[in-house]
Design a protein that fits this description.
Layout lengths: L2 H17 L6 E4 L5 H13 L3 E5 L15 H8 L1 H4 L1 E2 L4 E9 L5 E9 L7 E2 L1 H4 L1
Parallel strand pairs: 1-2
Antiparallel strand pairs: 2-5, 3-6, 4-5
Amino acid sequence: MSVLKQQTFMNMIIDDILTREEGQTFDCKSFAIDPRGLAVTFVAMANADGGKIAVGISDRKREIEGVCSSEKHLNELLRVPYDYCNPTVKATFDLIDCTNRHGEPDKIFFFIFSRALYSTLLRVMNVM
């Protein structure tokens, strides 16, 4: 795929994320979210129909914050399905290239996961 086509494709994905209505199977979360807070959304969606979560987009204004400002926090969010969900929520993820609200190259962290076969709970020891 040419660079121009790839960039156009990424813009289409970003536009879809920014305009898609949040609901039972889709949510946007700020990159500042605490991993435990993200786990609550994971568990709720996994116990329903599965879903998609775009991290790095402000909840209220739908501005692109991006996720490149802290590799440590990004890694903490990557661990959410394993560290805070029991049983583990099987999730795939993608980092989508974007331009953040400051005009800098950045990425959005996009989780995709299926409905859980068994009820998923928050790991109580890690939530308190």
